[in-house]
Amino acid sequence: MVMAMSLSLGLLSSSILPPETHTATFMRPSHSASSSGLRMVRTVTSCTVSHSDQGTRKIRGIMKPSKVTPEMAAIVGVKEIARTQALKRIWAYIKDNNLQDPEDKRTINCDEKLKKVFEGRDRVGMLDVARLISPHFLKSES
């Protein structure tokens, strides 16, 4: 009796029970038995975990490395990079060179390298950065 009650309440740990007795128990109120206070019990006897093959997926979209213009390569340091990584490196460049406006951190004060990438602008909003770097990613032949 005590063993059955412990199993239904989940009180025994997996170190005590053999693997074939591992079950999960869920309790749900029954609509027909609600007046008598009885509950229905549903037991899940096995579960499986699906594993996806991450290694076989082809990299596409903004995660795919693309060739960049020489102006962009001067900032990010490589000639071919994914858009996500380029954006990270541009923000690292901005922070390393202290180019954010001290009063409004959402505004970037461009130096000469950034002006070449950001259409010659002196100041750029942080939300404009992703749009302004887009023309610097060259189309691939394939």
Automatic annotation (TrEMBL):
Gene3D superfamilies, A to Z: SWIB/MDM2 domain
InterPro entries in alphabetical order: SWIB_domain (IPR019835), SWIB_MDM2_dom_sf (IPR036885), SWIB_MDM2_domain (IPR003121)
Tagged with keyword Signal: yes
Domain of life: Eukaryota
Keyword field: Signal
SMART domains xref list: SWIB (SM00151)
Signal peptide: 1-23
Domain called DM2: residue spans: 61-139
Name assigned to this protein: DM2 domain-containing protein
The species this protein was found in: Sphenostylis stenocarpa
